[in-house]
Design a protein that fits this description.
The structure is a homodimer. Chain A is of the alpha/beta class. Chain A is 46% helix and 16% strand. The first copy, chain A, has 14 helices and 12 strands. Chain B binds a DNA duplex through residues 4-6, 14-21, 24, 27-30, 33, 48-58. Chains A, B: InterPro entries: HTH_LacI, LacI/GalR-like_sensor, Lambda_DNA-bd_dom_sf, Peripla_BP_I.
DNA sequence: TCCGCTTGTGGGATCGATTGCATAAGGTTG
DNA sequence: CAACCTTATGCAATCGATCCCACAAGCGGA
């Protein structure tokens, strides 16, 4: 039915082996033969059968991308970056959405391995370390992004959450703020813990105690952001650092509804550089966690692993950090 | 190296053929044999090799998802829905991001066909109809979503943009507005054309002429939204319908900066139900284009095609419509 | 008893590209 | 000129699951 390598070989007057070598490049083939085969392939519109190629060569040119969802800005940014880099290097991406459910994740990991993926980019739950380590041992490349299980042997690319939160808090302190409120995620999450640590550290460095009444931690969800903001406003803070991204959707409307002037009455810093915060009035100062660079670096590491084929060297669980950047815009001013 | 069907067959004391049939289900196999094979497979941790299966059976259980980007809310919503449905039906999704570039799209389509995808979900550029029709003729399933080329033989699932825009405009007219400004996309795009048509139709039905000074059409981009809003405010509209989703990011800050009271001074309706507009203060009345249903319906149609394997029946270019819903919130009121 | 049918199982070819091994042609060196 | 190496090519096995075909066992009816 479809055109196979045999047809191309026939048209070019060579054997299948020679045709294969001519098209895959980089082996002993005379320039004329190579040209003849390439011409024949082009003329016939030959498209190689990846299933056959994968079966024999054990290289699928497939990369599995495992993540929680695509709604979160960091996640879909990373997904985009990964797909683009992959395509540029002639790899294809299999998308798997886990909802942060370890059971779904496990199922995806098993399925991906049946497809013979060459590597995996994981924003993982951290609950399947035994399985991921087994896959790693089988020679499948792997890089964890954003989250990393301590027991995982895969290298990880992490956001500098502590540094980012530290920079945001320091910025507010530099402006002269003392009553800096904090809205964060639960301490059970990586980012919740690290960002609070950054906030606390900055306060401590300037000799400021953290006032528990100014700290709100809760679910990654706008409703929590709204409640927390309402509570915090009663404490008369002069600045607010929202380190819980999803909560922002609740924080901003609550501030507007309460008629709080920004930055006149309250200085505001949020987390993650999403378009809305850039286009808001006044434009909101944010911490950019560097989602694009996270994705780029993860793919660099993964492609290195895949090409070297040396799980030993990479299976060290080494953690790389991507710097967070404070993007100063118009939402902060010295306190009155 | 890895455990193959041969190993499972050996452990269960049957032939490879029998083992294969026992695991693939739905053929003549005695219950005891089937149980024995399944047990052996489970005990050995057998994971079938998809490459081999695809090569022989010409079914990859892969679906290609081709779209512009993942930033746009409709697109990543559709991507999520497609992936979930696919996973539930034991298909995997290959993600391809085209940036709406026909050349990239073409390249992805060719690559996907080398992987032997069973079907394609396309938010396409419409510029590769010859190629998509060829793939369709080869037996690859296909459904276009949101955009559809007239020359394409694939069925399409389209948003009811005209109806949505009509409903939004009618809502404003019902409240008593007469000077209803419109911000849309270029007429060269499907959604730009259809949404303007809906606006115009609603106006016409109520005997209102469309005032060209109240209509702005331009790029899908916040900067355009900001300029357009600034120009429109000089025309003293009592209501604004923003049918260009990306422009919203420029429209809202401009309105806030100009101190326009909503809905007191100006009623506002936007397009697409994204979290920000739900949590804005006041909550913004929007037209929901039904991205989730678009994705669901597209997958339903695709799975039907793949299972029936009857390109004839489906290759009719038939267009399905998903209804748009007006979600009334707090951003509209009668004019003063 | 024999024929024909149903049900279950095995043998072996097959999908299409890759690759180890053999070999031929041409060139170099002592 | 013989021994040897380099370069280019072909042959045939191979990857692992599927599926056509053959065939055996069991059973009912004539």
């Amino acid at each position: 039915m479809a055109i196979t390598l045999k047809d191309v070989a026939g048209a070019a007057g060579v054997s299948r082996s020679t045709a294969s070598r001519a098209l895959s490049g980089s082996v002993l083939i005379s320039p004329e033969t190579r040209a003849a085969v390439q011409e024949a392939a082009a003329k016939l519109g030959y498209r190689p059968n990846r299933a056959a190629s994968t079966l024999r060569s054990r290289q699928s040119h497939l990369i599995g991308l495992v993540l929680n969802n695509l709604i979160n800005a960091s996640f879909h940014t990373i997904a985009e970056v990964v797909q683009r880099r992959a395509a540029a290097e002639n790899y294809q991406v299999m998308l798997c959405i886990t909802d942060a459910d370890p059971r779904r994740e496990e199922s995806f990991l098993r399925t991906l391995s049946t497809y013979g993926v060459d590597g995996l980019i994981m924003i993982g739950t951290g609950k399947n370390a035994a399985l991921t380590n087994a896959l790693l041992a089988e020679g499948i490349g792997m890089v964890s992004v954003i989250r990393a299980a301590a027991e995982s042997a895969a290298p990880s690319v992490l956001a500098a959450d502590r540094e980012g939160a530290h920079a945001a808090t320091a910025h507010l302190l530099d402006l002269g703020h003392e009553r800096i409120a904090f809205i964060g995620g639960e301490l059970t999450t990586n980012s919740g813990r690290e960002r609070f640590a950054g906030y606390e550290q900055a306060m401590r460095e300037r000799g400021r105690a953290v006032d528990p009444a100014l700290v709100e931690r809760g679910a990654f969800d706008p409703a929590f952001g709204a409640e927390a903001t309402a509570r915090l406003l009663r404490q008369n803070p002069t600045a607010l650092f929202t380190a819980n991204h999803e909560a922002v959707f609740g924080v901003l409307p609550t501030l507007v509804a309460a008629g709080v002037g920004i930055p006149g009455q309250l200085s505001l810093v949020c987390y993650e550089d999403i378009p809305w915060l850039r286009w808001w009035q006044p434009a909101v100062t944010v911490v950019d966690n560097g989602a694009r660079e996270l994705g780029e670096l993860a793919m660099d590491l993964l492609l290195q692993q895949i090409e070297n084929r040396s799980p030993r060297e990479h299976g060290t669980g080494r953690a790389y950090r991507v710097g967070a950047k404070l993007i100063v815009r118009a939402s902060c001013a010295p306190p009155r």
